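Reviewers asked in the last cycle whether our approach scales beyond single polypeptides. To address this, we selected a multi-component target totalling 230 residues and predicted its structure end to end. The input consisted of the following lines:
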Amino acid sequence: EPEVTQTPSHQVTQMGQEVILRCVPISNHLYFYWYRQILGQKVEFLVSFYNNEISEKSEIFDDQFSVERPDGSNFTLKIRSTKLEDSAMYFCATSEMLAGGDNEQFFGPGTRLTVL
Amino acid sequence: DQQVKQNSPSLSVQEGRISILNCDYTNSMFDYFLWYKKYPAEGPTFLISISSIKDKNEDGRFTVFLNKSAKHLSLHIVPSQPGDSAVYFCAASPSSGSARQLTFGSGTQLTVLP
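The resulting structure, written as structure tokens, was:
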């Protein structure tokens, strides 16, 4: 069964450093998302991406964050200058584009980001 | 932000019995609802969904009920199995927008006792 994959599974970084989290979507999916879950809190939406541009973004997704699909397969989330409060599980999700239908999102296993 | 609420942080059920997980929402723009299951150190796994044009959707042991007037949905698992023990998240999305962001509840830890 096709699945979303994410690398790395765990990233440890120093505050102020840049990190790039990578996701490989399910091959026929066209919508891509990033969510995060801070320990003990809800899963929160960050950004959605379609047709090589951002569709929606939340208040969390400020200028420190960016997304791109550099090579047509990977979908990346970059945090330019990490802060302690960026420590969280980051989940990539993808969905098909079904005309007139509902599109469930399929999640990857997550990347645990630890900012020291 | 409490647009999607799961008021029971935990639920214990005997194997073979029915598990009922509840979810309430406040945003009238939500028209598509999903349930996800999550094990520790894994991503959420999609279980079942329902759109606002329906009041029930069934898939094997899992049934989701939607009461739009009460802004309430529930997930029924019957019969419950020990492998169902996990955190269950309710999620909702609005009718507008082609890339539907999901708003999650806080989750309910289900424990199915053998």
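The mean pLDDT of chain A is 91. We regard this as preliminary and will revisit it once experimental data from Aim 1 are available.
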